Amino acid sequence: ITPASCTSTGLKKVTCTVCNKVVREEVIPPTGHNYEKTTVAPTCDDQGYDLNTCACGVWSKDNYVDALGHKYGEWYITNEAGWEREGLKRRDSKVCDHYEEETIEE
User: Fold this and answer.
1) Using an 8 Å Cβ cutoff, are 30 and 39 in contact?
2) How many angstroms separate the CA atoms of 67 and 76, rounded?
3) Strand (E) positions, 2-105?
């Protein structure tokens, strides 16, 4: 017996129960891909999607969802501006570790 795969036919040999001679051969049709779906959630920067994978290594993506974009909190001062020196303010994404910084004029 040669088992069928996702894309290839298999072969089954039918033998005589008395003399063990091959009476006929039967073609086993391909099984087709058996996909397992994994949903990948969107992040601030990257789209979400469904990842469909088969045990044979074939995969596809579908059902795309837009990236969320950064959702920033309020600005806070990390370095006060002073006499003849600039300061720095920052705001952090509420979803990931991304942040923005801006200079505060002296």
Assistant:
1) no
2) 26
3) 10-15, 22-28, 36-40, 48-53, 59-65, 76-79, 87-92, 99-104
Q: How confident is the model at residue 60 (pLDDT cuts 50, 70, 90)?
A: very high
Predicted local confidence at residue 95, as pLDDT: 86
For 67-71, 79-83, 91-95, which range has the lowest pLDDT when averaged over its residues? 79-83
For residue 67, count other CB atoms closer than 10 A to its CB. Answer: 13
> What is the rounded CA–CA span in Å between residue 78 and residue 100?
12
- Pairing of the two strands 48-53 and 59-65: antiparallel
Residue 101: name the closest of 83, 84, 77 by CA. Answer: 77
Dmax over Cα atoms in the chain, in whole Å? 104
21: DSSP letter = -
User: Residue 85's pLDDT is what?
Assistant: 87
| Rg of the chain over all Cα atoms, to the nearest angstrom | 31
